[in-house]
Structure formats: structure tokens, C-alpha cells
Structure prediction request, 214 residues.
Amino acid sequence: MLCGPNGELWSHRKIEPAAYEAFFFKGGGRNPNVFDTPIGRIGIAICFDTSKTHTIRSLIENRPEILLLQYSCPGLPSFFLKRDRDNWVEVYKHTAATYARHLGVPVVACNKTGPFRTSIPMSFGIQYTAAFVDTSVIVDAQGAPVSLISAKPGVICAEVEPAGKDSLPIDALPQGRWFLPLTLASRFSTEYGQKCGKLRYAFSQKRKRAALGR
Prediction:
């Protein structure tokens, strides 16, 4: 949700549930992600949606002047190989700059900090334990960081110049479904979890009763 000073509201729903989120939630599909506000055109992308080309393509089509990225992104659990865990963190830390270069606009990205722990659905009690990738950053339209905080909670702020509506992307857009360069293991596991979760969600009697208020 974006809230304006005069009571204006703009909303964007997450396009796809990420991995096993699909056991519990239904994505919003393609829906508006760039909004005309009193301070310019603001774009929004949510968490794992940023890894997909459908998100960057929609933003390119709608030309924001500044982009906000919101995350609830932990690192990968220890049962992934170290190279996959390291890649996951590095990709996240460079995502704001990657989007800035593709859109030619300033980007603000924020994530949680602290530990993360949950049971993985339909996994016989396997626990997902990690820490949030606790880096938040503001980058300019060229992708250079102008303010950053990591490894602790806090607030960052900086002055940036919103891009013009005719700003041009700097980097070419990759082909296929995946925009960010995650490893094959990361892609496969999240896609597999999402497909299983969507199927379970569709047949969940508990979800249907909840939707009917029973």
C-alpha cells in the first residue's frame, strides 16, 4: 500500500506466491505496479516477484520515476550447498542496483533483520532456519548506493533525483522466466515448492471454509 498526504491510496498485490507460500496464499497475478502520485510515478515490486521477468517487463512498460522494493527475504537454509546460499545473498544484495540499471531510475530496497525459522509444509517436520538477508539500500539511477544499512535494524535516508519519464534502461533484458541470476538449485526448489503449494491450496478444505467464514 502507498498512502498519500491527502488520503490517497494505491495498492499492488504480490504477483506470485514464493515457493511454499503457495500452500497458504494465492497470488494477485499481473496487476498495477506503477502509480501516479503527487511526487511522481512510483513503482512497486514485492520480494520474490523481483526475480521474475514478468515484473521487470511490467515496470519497463509503465515507466516509474522511482522504484520501491519490499522484502521478507531470509537466506537459504543449511541443507542447500554453500554456493547456492552465497549466490542467494549476493543476488539479493545487488537486486536494487540491477533494477536501477534496467530502468534508469533510483531504487529503494528494504528487508527484515534477525532470525527466521519455520516448518516446511509436507516435509515431515523439516525446519527452515536462517537469518534474514538484512541489508537495506538506496541506489541512484545508475545503481550506485547512496545509503545503506546492514546487520542491524535502523533507518536510512538519502536525496535522489527521480528519473524523467523518458529515461532509458542501461542494461539489456534477459530472456525467459527468470530475471535474476539465481542458481539452478534455488530456481528448481522454489518452483517445485510453489507448484506443490498451489495444488494443495486449490484442494484445501480448510482454506475454503475460511473463505466462507465458517
Remarks:
- Helices lie at 53-62, 82-103, 184-202, 205-211.
